[in-house]
Amino acid sequence: xxxxKKHGLLRRFARYYxxxxxxxxxxxxxAFMISVFNLVYPYxxxxxxxxxxxxxxxxxxxxxxxxxxxxYVIKAGLSYFLQCWGHIVGARMQADMRRALFSHLQRLPFAxxxxxxxxxxxxxxxxxxxxxxxxxxxxPEDVFLSVITIIGAFxxxxxxxxxxxxxxxxxxxxxxxxxxxxxxxxxxxxxxxRVAQGEINADIESAISGMRVTRAYNAQAHESExxxxxxxxxxKTKSRQFKVxxxxxxxxxxxxxxxxxxxxxxxxxxxxxGKIDGGEFTAFVLYISTLITPIRxxxxxxxxxxxxxxxxxxxxxxMDEPTEIESDTAISPDVLRGDIVFDGVTFGxxxxxxxxxxxxxxxxxxxxxxTIALVGPSGGGKTTLCHLIPRFYEIDGGSxxxxxxxxxxxxxxxxxxxxxxxxxxxxxFNGTIKENIAYGDFDATDEQIVAAAQKANIHDYIMSLPNxxxxxxxxxxxxxxxxxxxxxxxxRAFLKNPPILILDEATSALDNATEMLIQxxxxxxxxxxxxxxxxxxxxxxxxxxxIIVITQDGVEERGTHDALxxxxxxxKTLYDYQFKNL
Length: 582
Hints:
By secondary structure, the protein is α/β, with parallel strands linked by helices. The protein is 64% helix and 11% strand. The protein has helices at residues 2-15, 21-52, 58-106, 110-115, 118-160, 162-169, 172-209, 211-216, 220-272, 278-319, 382-388, 412-417, 433-437, 446-455, 459-464, 482-496, 512-526, 561-567, 570-578; strands at 340-351, 354-366, 371-375, 397-402, 405-406, 419-422, 500-504, 530-534, 546-551, 554-559. The strands form two sheets. Strands 6-7-8-3-9-10 form a six-stranded mixed beta sheet, sandwiched between helices. Strands 2-1-4-5 form a four-stranded antiparallel beta sheet, with helices on one face. β7 (500-504), α17 and β8 form a beta-alpha-beta unit. The longest helix has 53 residues, at 220-272.
């Protein structure tokens, strides 16, 4: 089973060579020619010592010298191709893998990102794939060159003296067996190092992103201690890796040195007893030097093979994660009206294999064109309900329909195209204000972007900036205030102009004056659209067509603001608590 799995990984790895097979074949031919040239030198040396010099064949001597010089010039050109274009092949394969991985990540369910750290994923896209690209270039080339050199050296050594060759090559199986025995042990250590590298990247990413929170709470010592734990674990695993590497390389160097010792001893005895002449002895020693070089190359590349194989295995782990499933018969309506029905919906987040139910047997209807507000204590699943409509998560039971279509029967693209979302936790991309607003519609004109910003009450502020709409927002919008980021996000929703609008605490970061302006704009945007509003500030939902009070037990109350106040239930309690000091 394990062998089959390794062969499967090898076949998957080989597929990435296919788009670059022409360059790869030329690369292998260059490696082959270099191997041949390496094997020619000892033979020419033997002829010079045994024939050209003793017989004073000066023309042959100069010709042989000129031939060697020509070979070295050609070899230099071939080496340039290997170093330049061989690495380019590796870089292109790395780009192909990164492209495939990025595309795959775009289609993974949200639950995957809930369970995996951003820094760990980044490590797999950068560190791991760099090692894979190095393996893609050096692996086949060095292995092929080494194998050809070893086989060629054995054949030419056999022509000199077959018995001496057999004595030398009797040591090769011992070297190979030792390398195989070390492989499994090294594989485990390299995988552990990769995990440690990913974890420390995740800690660094988290610490840098949360630097302002760290400073605000004077938590530098805590973050340093947390970082040091990860850093120490990384050093510990790296130390184990270097210990295994030290054992492997020192042992392999001893074995190759012993091989050279055996050649000198056996060759010297063969020369002493007249089995070989001086030229043959010299050629034999040179061929052994030629033989030892690829053995040491294989020893050196073994570390690279382990690094690359581990990185490719981790790459495949993500690529094997199931993506969001799209039915072949998925329906793609161009425009939805927005009649949304929850019917007996059950959903829970999975944590370490165990499911934590958040919503149980929940039913609710949001008529097309109406504004429905969800309020109530935290933990009732209000935000989760918003995530289920665009099918960010798959429900465990029941159904959600839009215009009579079960959302599982709709294509995700068509469904999400008809939904605009403004969340409490606004995410802005590292780019300009214009680029971030344009996420609502990448085909929008500058005039449409400006109009959306005006409706979101952010246009005047943007125009006060030196670079206007071309102003950079910084990483995650760090150069803007919370209210400004929120209004850019609202402008994005205005630009998308969807029939279904989800506002998850959309005005939570706004001051009272700005909130009034935005509420007016959102009121206009909501006209004729299905709008779902999640809010803790009850002043923002007073004008909703219906307010639904949700607790952990489901729908507690529903009705208009005035009706719920008159009822004197949970909604009135929450409302009175918020406004008791006014």
